[in-house]
Amino acid sequence: MIEDALAAILAGEVVGIPTDTVYGIGADPFNPDAVARLFEMKGRPRDKPLGVLVASVDQALEIAELNDEGAALAARNWPGALTLVVMPRVVMADSVGDRQTGTIGVRVPDHPVALELLALTGPLAVTSANESGGVEAMNDREARDVFGERVAVYLEGVAPGGVASTVIDASSADLIVLRSGPIQI
Description:
Blueprint: H1 2-10, E1 15-17, E2 24-27, H2 32-42, E3 51-53, H3 57-63, E4 64-65, H4 68-77, E5 82-88, E6 104-107, H5 112-121, E7 124-128, H6 140-147, E8 153-154, E9 166-169, E10 176-179
Helix pairs in contact: 1-5
């Protein structure tokens, strides 16, 4: 199944991914058509940027800058339910990251299926598997009920956390909590 998801990502399709927080849908963050498909499927406003999941701190450093404060948070909480908003090192498709602030949200999920896929694909633009404003899916069956055949591959799995990640702006020395969640800083 992982190979099918990898092939779908490489073909510019959207895949379903279990994470430690909520079940997600993801696509290649460097492919503008794939990212546009994510927004269209969800009915998500284009001014609400997507974050990126990565397999490790090393993979995060390929695409983003981690200052001392961000690196310390990552060392203590990754893999886990912490998204760090940081400065990007690379240019991704529009609406992956926030063009106004010049930042991107990055996270290493604590879920074996997500980590296995991310190790093969590299970074993925991911959002919760629900229509914008709706209840987040917690597993592949719930996500399939929402998106049906519009998602190319659903990786089996359950999101045990049930709550979206904590989001911390770590783009400067002053850490700012943008969204409270399971990780307390």
